[in-house]
Amino acid sequence: MGIADLPVVVVNEARCHYSAWNADMLRASLGSGYRCRVLEVNGEIAGHAILSVAGPEAEILNLCICTSLRGHGLGRAFLRHLLHTARDAGAEDVFLEVRVSNGRARRLYETEGFQQIGERPDYYPGPRGREDGLVLGRRIAEGPLPEPFETCLA
Ligand SMILES: CC(C)(COP(=O)(O)OP(=O)(O)OC[C@H]1O[C@@H](n2cnc3c(N)ncnc32)[C@H](O)[C@@H]1OP(=O)(O)O)[C@@H](O)C(=O)NCCC(=O)NCCS
């Protein structure tokens, strides 16, 4: 992800999340040392992700696939790419937070080996009041990681 990608990423981000990151937050991420990635399909940005790696721990701070391209395996491929990126950077565990109501994302993470390790009551704002968050984690230090599908990652 680069500065030139931000106009598209900001639009996609706003469509993906109730508490979307704004342009300033995304721009700051680019200069922060986070691994900021866009997923390209046929030269167009199909999704974006932000990964933080600090020593043996990595955190997926953001993962988003455009609404029109969901359900085709891109989210799974992108997640797998992030796991490889985290391991290549020296991480041994990957963590993330997900809304209790986000069944699609929870199913994706569960089937990629993430397990619930905590709960954050009333963590997320939402249209019907606050909502609990789940903290998920996955060990990546040992064993093979599933390969991403063939995609264009920039
Ligand atoms: C979560 C998200 C990244 C998944 O991306 P995607 O490209 O649609 O996911 P995939 O097509 O790779 O599907 C991965 C798995 O998600 C689950 N899934 C996908 N579509 C689903 C649906 N309509 N209903 C329930 N589960 C679904 C399935 O387990 C699926 O695996 P399967 O196809 O082998 O059964 C995407 O929905 C998204 O960007 N959502 C908004 C942002 C978000 O919630 N990010 C995660 C925050 S923690």
TrEMBL record:
Entry coiled-coil feature ranges: none
Domain of life: Bacteria
Main location: cytoplasm
EC number: 2.3.1.266
Catalytic activity: N-terminal L-alanyl-[ribosomal protein bS18] + acetyl-CoA = N-terminal N(alpha)-acetyl-L-alanyl-[ribosomal protein bS18] + CoA + H(+)
GO cellular component, one term: ribosome
CDD domains, per the entry: NAT_SF (cd04301)
Transmembrane residue ranges: none
Function: Acetylates the N-terminal alanine of ribosomal protein bS18.
Protein name according to UniProt: [Ribosomal protein bS18]-alanine N-acetyltransferase
